[in-house]
Structures are given as structure tokens and as C-alpha cells.
Inverse folding.
């Protein structure tokens, strides 16, 4: 075991991790195990959370220090033992366990295997964890900051929103149809599910519905379900009772915070199935129960949910419960991707210029026709959010005296994308102009060689290197295609 211990220490030192330094850490818990489950390192944070001293656990095995409960779902009875046996990383696990001193511990842990130099053998594992109360406190603090920020931004409203239907830019049929349906949804209190790719503006639409509804006077409270560990999401949604876990205090959940208003659940498809069932019950009964509590609290909240994938596909993939979908999808709104409404790019771009140029101290008022053409050719995988970032970046790049955004101001990746598409279009023209596959391939090959040769300023060796062919082969092709300057 001593040789393995030295190998683990060596592996950690390669990563600039010293066991002595790790054991000094107080704000998080770090444990190191050898391949047989002996505890090699035990940080001060572990001592504080578990109530044991390092001297009493070092050298002992996991099953000597902790109560191991094996089951069909957990055949090894312990996450570190599972990692040691399988070599798999296990991140953000909600774990309840009992050390040998009898103290009940509830943590969020991540455990990583340590491999030998040649990566062929598991020689140990590192486990990092924190008390679940720390995560709850952190999540509540983040949520409070987000709510305070939203309230600060709402200059003309005091309900946590900053957007209305007038902020949705575009005259295309697809976006106007979406707005029309959303306005209809705001006239009643039926639950709404918004689907759309990342960056299409799902929260903008949700806030607009809220502000035009009879609940518009109430608060709009939003949460991204994928941004919060699933084991904390229940506490954030429903609140906690004092004593529900170590250090727990009485807190309001988002349902109570949104009372009389709207709760927006973004990326609902990332919520665990177990929590979806509790959410379903709350929606059906209009009652919630705090974590650790036994009193049911009545709620009056409209729920708007959103997903970045087709909800029916999410049901097939068991990411959304079918019964929850039917409860949430009183009306389904589909926000079109920007690549399917490119006619809105000019109005969106001008809107972002008017919105940000003056704030950035620039005199930009418009975009050149050439730059527009480049924007129209791009597919916008990041949708409206990506376009806004592109325009903002172009404004930053512009000199103080410039008034027009040109191609030189656009991000390099968009220019590269446009260049590739232009080349591809040229090759497609070759296909349509040619009578045979051989002739088409010859024309394409000649163009590629010529472009590379010219970009290398006629340097044959460099051209051959970039194209991955021999110098002699390149010279032969240059002569065959009668490319001048190659002699």
C-alpha cells in the first residue's frame, strides 16, 4: 500500500495538489482514498462537517469509518467505492450518510478517480463535498441578488420585469404570429409553455405576457432550472422550514415570492422527474409544502414554463413527464429561430445600434450593405442573443469618428463563416456548369490550389505543406492546371 500511496501523492503533485495543503482547507471538505478505500487525506473541512478528527480516520477504510448500505441501485454502498471500482467521475451528488460517531450528514459531493502515469490503472480517488446548507444559502443569496437586480432595472415597473411586447422586434410572419398568440395568452390565466432555441428570447416573451395580463401588477419571478443543482431546486421553489437540515432557517420559496404574479420556469426539461411530480401536485392542488414542513400553503401563481427543445421529444426522452406537460401546456408558443426569420436582421440590428451606440460613446448610426449581406448569410446558432452580441462588439471595434458598421468591424468567426460559404457557393456553381463529375472535381481542385498558392505568395514549399501533399506533386498539378508563376 505504501508504494501506491507514494504513486497517488506523485500523481497529485503533478497536478500541483499537495495532500498537506488540501488538509489545511476549511471551507470545503476534501478526502483522498487509495485503490482499496483507505483514507489518505482528510481536510479540516471534513473535521468540521463530520465531527471527527483526522487522526481517527487516516489509514482506515471507508466501511470502517462510515455506515455502508448496499442496494440494487447502489451496489457498492458508497460513491467513493463506486468511483474506485468503475473509474467514472460522479459529480454533484446529493448524499446522506452516517460516520462512525453517529452524526447525520447531508452534502453535495463530487468524486474523481486518480489514474497511474500510463492512465491504465485506478490508484485512488478524490472526493470534494460541502454541507448542503452552504448550497442552499448560496442559492438563496444568488436568487435574492437576481431579484434585486431585476427590480433595479425595472425603471417604469416595480414587478421584476423590464420587457413588454414593444421590445420584441421583427415584422416577419413567424414572429408576428408568435406575438399574436402570446397577446391572446395574456388575456386569460391558462398556463403557457414557450419553446425555442437558446437565445431566441423566451424570457422576453414571458415578461411581455405577464405585463399584459391581469396579474401584471404582481411580481414576475424567474428561475433557470438548469442553473441550480436539482437537489437544491425543491428548497428554492417551495421554501424551507427551520431545522429541515443542518443550519436550515425559515425561508420563502419562489412560489410564495411570486404570489399573485407569475413564476417563470426556464429549461423545465432539466428538472428531475421526482421534482416534476411534486411540481405537478402543487399545480393541481394549488398548495405547496415547504421542505421539512407539514403545513400546506395555498398559492395563487400563474406558471409560464420554457424549454429549449421540442417538448414532445423531451417526453419521449423522459425529460418531461407527460402529465406535467399537459398541465403546463395550456397554450404552446414556439419562438422561431433567427435563421428562419432573417428578414428581421436589419430591424433588430438597427434597434441594437440605437440602444447601445450612444451609451458606448460611439457615433454609429447604420450598417453598410456589405456588412448586412454577411449578417444575412450567417446561420445564427445563438439567435437574437448572438446578433445583439455581434452588433455590440462591432460598435466597440468602431473608431469614435465612424458612423457606419462595415465588414471590418464584425467578429472574425462570422467573416470566416461567410468566406467558407462563398467558396462553397462557387464550387456549387461549378457543379451546375459541368457535364461530368471528373470535370467538376478538376475545377474545384484547381481553385483550391490557386487560392492556397496565392495566399502563400507563390511559395511552393509552403503551399505544399498547407495542402498536405509533396512539393513534386504540387509542381505537377501547377503545370497541369497552367497556373502562372509556378515555373
Amino acid at each position: 500500500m505504501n508504494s501506491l500511496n507514494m504513486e497517488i501523492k506523485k500523481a497529485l503533485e503533478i497536478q500541483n495538489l499537495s495532500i498537506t495543503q488540501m488538509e489545511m482547507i476549511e471551507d470545503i471538505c476534501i478526502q483522498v482514498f487509495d485503490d482499496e478505500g483507505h483514507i489518505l487525506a482528510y481536510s479540516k473541512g471534513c473535521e468540521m462537517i463530520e465531527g471527527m478528527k483526522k487522526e481517527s480516520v487516516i489509514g482506515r477504510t471507508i466501511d470502517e469509518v462510515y455506515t455502508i448500505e448496499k442496494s440494487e441501485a447502489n451496489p457498492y454502498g458508497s460513491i467513493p467505492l463506486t468511483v474506485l471500482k468503475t473509474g467514472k467521475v460522479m459529480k454533484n451528488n446529493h448524499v446522506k450518510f452516517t460516520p462512525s460517531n453517529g452524526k447525520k450528514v447531508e452534502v453535495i459531493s463530487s468524486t474523481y478517480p486518480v489514474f497511474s502515469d500510463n492512465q491504465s490503472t485506478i490508484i485512488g480517488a478524490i472526493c470534494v463535498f460541502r454541507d448542503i446548507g452552504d448550497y442552499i444559502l448560496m442559492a438563496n443569496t444568488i436568487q435574492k441578488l437576481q431579484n434585486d437586480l431585476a427590480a433595479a432595472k425595472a425603471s417604469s415597473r416595480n414587478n421584476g420585469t423590464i420587457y413588454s411586447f414593444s421590445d420584441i422586434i421583427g415584422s416577419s410572419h413567424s414572429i408576428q404570429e408568435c406575438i399574436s398568440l402570446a397577446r391572446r395568452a395574456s388575456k386569460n390565466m391558462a398556463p403557457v409553455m414557450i419553446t425555442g432555441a437558446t437565445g431566441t428570447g423566451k424570457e422576453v416573451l414571458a415578461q411581455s405576457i405577464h405585463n399584459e395580463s391581469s396579474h401584471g401588477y404582481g411580481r414576475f419571478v424567474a428561475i433557470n432550472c438548469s442553473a441550480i443543482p436539482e437537489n437544491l431546486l425543491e428548497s428554492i421553489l417551495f421554501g424551507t422550514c427551520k431545522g429541515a437540515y443542518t443550519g436550515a432557517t425559515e425561508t420563502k420559496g419562489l412560489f410564495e415570492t411570486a404570489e399573485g404574479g407569475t413564476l417563470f420556469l426556464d429549461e423545465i426539461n432539466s428538472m428531475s422527474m421526482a421534482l416534476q411530480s411534486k411540481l405537478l401536485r402543487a399545480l393541481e392542488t394549488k398548495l405547496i409544502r415547504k421542505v421539512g414542513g407539514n403545513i400546506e400553503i395555498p398559492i395563487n401563481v400563474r406558471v409560464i414554463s420554457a424549454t429549449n427543445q421540442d417538448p414532445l421529444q423531451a417526453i419521449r426522452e423522459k425529460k418531461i413527464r407527460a402529465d406535467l406537460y399537459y398541465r403546463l401546456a395550456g397554450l404552446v408558443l414556439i419562438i422561431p429561430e433567427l435563421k428562419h426569420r432573417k428578414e428581421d436582421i436589419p430591424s433588430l440590428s438597427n434597434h441594437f445600434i440605437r440602444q447601445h451606440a450612444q451609451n458606448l460613446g460611439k457615433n454609429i448610426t447604420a450598417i453598410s450593405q456589405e456588412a448586412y449581406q454577411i449578417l444575412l448569410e450567417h446561420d445564427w446558432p445563438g439567435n437574437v442573443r448572438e446578433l445583439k452580441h455581434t452588433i455590440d462588439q462591432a460598435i466597440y471595434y468602431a473608431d469614435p469618428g465612424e458612423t457606419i458598421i462595415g465588414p471590418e468591424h464584425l467578429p472574425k468567426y462570422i467573416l470566416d463563416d461567410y468566406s467558407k460559404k462563398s467558396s462553397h457557393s462557387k464550387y456549387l456553381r461549378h457543379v451546375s456548369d459541368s457535364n461530368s463529375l471528373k470535370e467538376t472535381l478538376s475545377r474545384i481542385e484547381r481553385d483550391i490550389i490557386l487560392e492556397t498558392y496565392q495566399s502563400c505568395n507563390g511559395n511552393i514549399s509552403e503551399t505544399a505543406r498547407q495542402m498536405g501533399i509533396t512539393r513534386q506533386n504540387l509542381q505537377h498539378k501547377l503545370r497541369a492546371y497552367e497556373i502562372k508563376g509556378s515555373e
Q: What stands out?
A: The chain has four domains: 2-131, 154-334, 350-416, 434-480.
